[in-house]
Amino acid sequence: MILGIDFSLTATGVCAITNGEAECITVRSGPGSEWWMHPERVGRIADKVAEWAIPLGGVPAWTIESPSFGSKGQLDKLYSGWWMLVDALMGRGWDPPLRVTPSQLKKFATGRGNAAKDEVLLAAARRFPDVETRNNNETDALVLASIGAAAFGEPFAGELTKYQQDIVDAVRAGGKDKK
C-alpha cells in the first residue's frame, strides 16, 4: 500500500493506493489554535491516519507534502505540526516518508509548478476519473499517493510524462526536480 498525506491542522487529506485502487478520506481535527495544544491535536490526527490506513494494507510506504517555506501566514504552527505528524507516524514503526514539495505536486498534476488548487483538482479528476475526492485536501493526497506509487513501482499512475518522471526521480532521491 502507498499512502499520500496532505497535512493540515484542520483537514488532513489522506489517500491510500492498494492493488491499483485508490481510496481517500479527510481527517478533521477540532479547534485548538494555541501552540501548546499542537502535540495532542497532531497526535489525534496521526492516530486517525494510522487507524484508517493499517487495516487497508499494513504499515504503508508513504508520501507527504513538505511545508511550503515560501508561504505567508502562521507557518510556525504548520511546520511544527508537520514534524510532529512525521515523528508520530515514524514512532509507530513507519519508514521515513518521501517528501514532495508543493510545486512538485502541482507540476506532477498539471505540468505547472504554480498551478492553482482548482487546476490540480481538475487535472486529477481527468487523470483518475474512477477515484472520488471530496475536496482539495483529498485531491492533493491522491496526487501525492500517485507520485509515491510511481516511486515505489506500484501500478497506478499509468504512463508518466518526462516531467512527471523527473519529479518521481527527484522525490525518490530526496531532492528537488530539475527546472
Unreliable runs, pLDDT <50, ≥5 residues? none
Topology as H/E string? Answer: EEEHEHEHHHH
> How many beta-strand elements?
5
* Count of alpha and pi helical runs: 6
Spatial arrangement of strands, main beta sheet: 3-2-1-4-5
Structural class: alpha/beta
Report Rg.
15 Å
Roughly how many Å apart are the termini? 30 Å
Sheet bearing the most strands, described?
5 strands, mixed
> Would you tell me the overall average pLDDT?
90
Strand-residue proportion = 15-25%
**Which geometry do the CA atoms define?**
globular
Helix content class = 40-55%
How would you explain this protein's 3D organization?
The chain is 47% helix and 16% strand. It is an alpha/beta fold. Strands 3-2-1-4-5 form a five-stranded mixed beta sheet. Strand 2 (11-18) and strand 3 form a beta hairpin. It is globular, with a radius of gyration of 15 Å.
